[in-house]
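Memo to structure team: turn this sequence into structure tokens by end of day. - J.P.
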Amino acid sequence: MSAVIQHAEAAGLEAHAADFPILARPVRGRRLVYLDNGATTQKPGQVIEAERTFYRESNANIHRGVHWLSQHATDLYELARERVRGLLNAAHADEIVFTRGTTEAINLVAQSWARANLKPGDEIVLTSMEHHSNIVPWQLVCEQTGAVLKVVPITDAGELEPGAYESLLGERTRLVALVHVSNALGTVNPVREMVERAHAVGAVVLVDGAQAVAHQPVDVQALGCDFYAFSGHKLYGPTGTGALYGRRELLAAMPPWQGGGDMIRTVAFEGSTWADPPQRFEAGTPNIAGAVGLAAAIDYVRGIGLERIAAHEAALLAHATDALQAVPGVQLIGTAAVKAGIVSFMVDGIHPHDLGTILDSEGVAIRAGHHCAMPVMTRFGIPGTARASFALYNGERDVAALVDAIAKAQRMFGTRSDA
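Reply from structure team:
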């Protein structure tokens, strides 16, 4: 066992696996080795209990009722907003808009800010490593406004090509939308520097933080970004939750995206007026219990310490990288110098889907396919990859189980004589 991971385990980090009830259940008669955290993380008992307690003790609709229970539920919901503000170090709680996740947050910006501000010939800059959720909304906006997409290419290592980003920025650049951590490659982009360069040409910057917030501290004020989006279910929180951070002055100038209850100030058949942000962007009854669960998840990870989580996962990623590189016939896809806890790979002679099925028979859960990042797969000329993605509850024995299961697949396909 590596010295770094020994230190992390000695500090009690991996022991937190006991906080996650699902990890105690066997899968196909074997210990569950859950390495699909890039898709969704498992939930600690604290989060599960927070939602349960809300429905048992606090359930009511929010913001409108004068009775005690409604006011109590409203307090819990707004406390959750404050938890998100603290997680991201936003300056103001009203810069936090609750959404169903990263996808909805990006679509909100696309249809509210971009559609209202872009015109024919304006340019949106993306990177080649974006998730579909940070590509398709901008394609729709381009169809609606006449704006055009510009795309930063990536190297064989899965990093942005040197100088390419700067060369695409210009007087027509109005928006840059980039991923903080690539879900397909694990690459960590230099967001702060990219934001500074975009602002130098007058562009607004949105950051997809779906793969970042559970794995490292995020400070939107230090990054300088204009928008930041993340999903609760990748942060040990409930599905159907997430948030958009937006600078206060930008949100105040944006029209609503969806209409309905709780996003209005006045309504008449002659016309309506809108509530101030963030309520302007939260039409209808929200996922109140989910917000309470998200707050519990934030308390959970901050209680452990995001710096500790980042150090643990970095050490585990280094160990897994070495272990997989030592397996004959394994090719890593994405070898950036700065990565988060994701390792994508191919195994000679075995399709990723077949590999994922065989690993599942051994109780090892990975992701196999294009990971909603088809342009990445096209860049590398492959149909997809196998992806192991780590969380705070993973350890070296999970990596050992992954390597052993790969060896079984190689024996079944006859691609490794010494396996």
